[in-house]
Each structure stands twice: as structure tokens, then as C-alpha cells.
Amino acid sequence: MTGANDESSGRDSGPEPAGQGPFPRALEDLETAVLDACEGEGEWPARVAAGVYAGVGFAIANPYVARELVMEPVSKSGSGSQYERLVSRLVGFLRARAPAGTRPPASTDEALIAGIVGLVGDHVRIGRLDRLAALRPELVLLTLLPYLGFPEAQRWANVADDLSSREG
After folding, report:
1. Phi-psi region of 161 (alpha: psi -120 to 50; beta: other; left: phi over 0)
2. Within a domain: 148
């Protein structure tokens, strides 16, 4: 990551390197969507669910941008792929307010988020946006599972799905 990381919001306050195309703006737009959704919720699991729904919603609304975020090759600066930067940022958001007593190893968070980003990217790439929308509760369950265990993660996934059904 470049720039100073603001611990309270998880937002990156510094400029991105020049010459990397639309990626810095796309990543900023995704981050804004996820963080804004999270800020509207109280409990950490509700924030995670809101972030998952917002991230998937961003991918559905912006499939070209989502495809660029997850499929762009290693940057010209050699600083790693945009995919790796995306995963790193999302892992940071997940861990920022995670319950201290139930944190799995960092590698678990990285594998979890990389799997979710890959799954979303695959759905966008093959044009299965309808199925991607339907996967949101399962993605919430998957994200919360290592922290809360199955019954509680399932409960939060159901709550998020119920709220989404009422709104949409």
C-alpha cells in the first residue's frame, strides 16, 4: 500500500503511483462503497455483511471495473498485481475491527478474501451476475465462519439476506 493508512477508517490517505491506469480510482471507488456500507452498521458481523453486500453490489453494477480489478496483470512498477493489492486492502478492512479473541491466523484471512475475490471475479468474467447476487448470503457466511463459528455466522448471513430482500 502506498500513503499513510488511517486506522480509524482503513482508507489510504496517500497518492497512488502514476501510470497504473484506472486501477487506483477503481480500487478507491470499491473501498468507498464497502467502507460507507460498513459505517452504517453497529456490530462487527453486521459491518462485515454490509461490506460483502456492497462489494458484490459494486461488482454487479460495474462488471468491467470489477474485471479489471481482479484480472489485471502485475503492475508495470513491479509492485505486485492489482489483485494482490485488492486482496490486501480487503483483508485489512476485515481485520481492522475483528473481535480480538477470535482472530484466526492472518493467512486464513488472506486465503478467505482471495477465494471470495476470485469467486466474484469468475462470476463477473463469465457473466453470471444474477448468480453472484444470489451468492451474497453464502459469502457472508464464509467470511464470518472462522470468527463466529457456523451457527452464529449462519444467523448473520440470514439477517443480511432478510434485510436485503426487504430493501430490494
Report:
1. alpha
2. yes
Do the domain assignments include residue 12?
no
Q: In degrees rounded to 5, what are phi and psi of residue 44?
A: -55, -45
pLDDT of residue 78: 52
Number of domains in the chain: 1
In a domain, 62, yes or no: yes
What is the tens place of the pLDDT at every residue in 99-138? 887 778 878 889 999 999 999 989 999 999 999 999 999 9
Q: What is the Cα–Cα distance from 93 to 77, expressed in whole angstroms?
A: 25
Say if 8 falls within a structural domain: no
Give yes or no for a contact between 124 and 64, defined as CB atoms under 8 angstroms apart: no
Return d(Cα 12, Cα 97) in angstroms, integer.
16
What tens digit of pLDDT does each residue of 3-55 get? Answer: 333 333 343 333 434 445 566 788 888 888 998 988 877 899 999 999 999 99
What is the per-residue burial (b if ≥16 Cβ within 10 Å, else e) of 128-153?
ebeebbebbbebbbbbbbbbbeeeeb
Please tell me the predicted confidence (pLDDT) of residue 42: 85
